[in-house]
Amino acid sequence: MPALSNSTAPPPKVLVTGANGFVAMWVVRTLLERGFSVKGQVRSAVKGEHLVRYFKDHEGRFELVVVPDIAEEGAFDAAVMDVSGVIHMASPVSFDVEDPQDLIRPALNGTLGVLKSALKHGRSIQRIVVTASVASIVEDRDTPTVFSEADWNTQAVRDIEANGAAASAMSKYRASKTLAERAAWDFVEEHKSEIGWDLTVINPPMIFGPVIHEVTTPSALNFSAIAWYTCVATPDMGGKPKEFILARRLCWVDVRDVAEAHVRALEKEAAGGKRIIASAGSLCWQEFINTANALPTKHTLPRGFPDDEMPTVAHLLYDATRSKEVLGMSYRTMEETTRDILADYDARGW
Ligand code: NDP
Questions:
Q1: If you placed Cys at 248, which of 9, 82, 288, 311 could pair as Cys (CB 3.0 to 4.6 Å)?
Q2: Ligand 1 within 6 A of 90 CB?
Q3: Domain residues for 295?
Q4: What is the mean pLDDT of residues 252-270?
Q5: How many domains does the chain have?
C-alpha cells in the first residue's frame, strides 16, 4: 500500500479528527510544518476559532470542518471525499462517567464511522491512522510485566460486561479504547478486498508536554497534562500520597513525539497494517519532581519525597522497539519535556 508523500503538488490533504485537542493540535502543527494540507474536524465552529488563528500563516493549507456528532451515521461522508489520509483522534477521555456507553459509543461509532465513510467516499485515501492507547494493550497484573503490540486488553471489556456502570472508571475508558481499536482492525479485515487504503494504529501511554490548544487555566487541561501539573507543579501535589508519588506503575511520552509518530505513520509504507506503541519509558512522579527542581523556573514546585528510594523496577513497561524500527522514532528525555512544560507555564503566568 502506498504511503503519503509530502513532495507531491498540491500537497496531500489529511483529515485530523478532534483537531482542537491537546495531542491533535500538535499533530496538525507537525503535518503543516511537514508540508501537508490539513482539514481539522471539530464539533462546533467556536471550537475551531483558536485553530484558525493559530495556523493562519500556513498559506491556506489549513481548513476547518465541523462535524457535531462523530457517532452519527455518515458523519464523515463529506469530510473524507478530498483527503489522501486520515488521522482519527477524536475520542472522549474521561474518568468520571457513570454509564460506560458514554465513552464506548462515541469511541466505537466514531472510529467505525470514519472507516465506513472512507470505504464509501474516500477514493483518494491511502492510509488511515487511528489513535488508540496502551489502554487497549495493558491489563492489571500482580507482577512486573512488559507489554507489546501482541497484547490485547480483554480485562477491561470483561469488567464492563460483568459490572456495567459499577465497573471501575479505568475499565470504562480502557474498554472504550479497546473496543474501538478492535473494531477498526475487524472492519479492515472484513473489507480488505474493497478498500484502497490501509490502517495503522498508534498506542501511546500518558502524554505530557507543552500545550498549544486553547487552555486558559490549569484546571482546563486534559487529563494527562493536568496529572503532570498536579503532581509536579502544585506545591501540595494535589494531596497525592507518598506511595503514589514514589510508585513506578506508569509510562509516558512527549506530546511532540506522539505527533511525530502519527505523521510518520502516514509517511512510512512499512507502517501499514501495524499497531505501534509510542512510549518513552516508565515514570515515577518523584523523578519528574526531581528533574523539575533541577531546572530554572518561576514556579513554586513540590519537593516530593527526595530522601526516599524510588523503585528501580517498573511494574509495567511497553516495548517501543517497533516504533524505532518502523517509524525511526527516538524519544525526548524527561529533562527536555519538563523544561519545555515549565517554560510553557512560565509564559502563561501559571
Ligand atoms: P483531549 O481531551 O485534549 O481531546 C479530545 C478530542 O476528542 C477533542 O477534540 C474532543 O472534542 C474530542 N472528543 C471528545 N469526546 C468526544 C465525543 N463524544 N464526540 C466527539 N469528539 C469528542 O484529549 P487528548 O488530546 O489527550 O487525546 C487525544 C487522543 O489520544 C484520544 O483518542 C485519546 O484516547 C488518545 N490518548 C491520549 C492519551 C493522553 O495521555 N492524553 C494517552 C493515550 C491515548 P471537544 O473538545 O469538542 O470535547
A1: 311
A2: yes
A3: 210-253+280-350
A4: 98
A5: 1
